[in-house]
Design brief:
The structure is a single chain. Strands 1-2-3-4 form a 4-stranded antiparallel sheet, covered by helices on one side. Strands 5-6-7 form a 3-stranded antiparallel sheet. The protein folds into 2 domains: 107 residues, Roll (PH-domain like), CATH 2.30.29; 30 residues. Helices cover 33% and strands 26% of the residues.
Amino acid sequence: MIEAKAFAETAVFDGEYVTITRGRMSLVGKGETRLHISQISAVRWKPAGMFGGFIQFSVPGAITAKSGSGSQNSDARRDPHAVTFNKKQQPPFEELRTAVEAAIAARHTAPEAPQAESSIADELAKLNDLHQQGVLSVEEFASAKARLLGD
């Protein structure tokens, strides 16, 4: 579990959910927002500068206004899917960002294609090839063929 604390907010990632908890000093209001990793499409990141930084979780269907120059941090303070932080607070948020991005990527990575099982016809063809090459005797070929066909 990764926990990152800021002024009036805490973000926690348990490998499945990102939970943002806000205290009464938060501009968004006191309470909790829980996002399952499947709901998060991207992580927006602004490293802390003179006026702080933020981590913002993009959620499809959520209305997020494009910030004008110089207003990104103040807009992030009002976003229920974002947490602002200062330079001292930044390291755990970097760790949180890395873990959430890795979890998003893992959800979008295609699983390996299962190995195609060979059909009985394929196996019979292989047995026949081995017999034609002289690797299998007539008796060995007949026995293997019977086993394959369930005789």
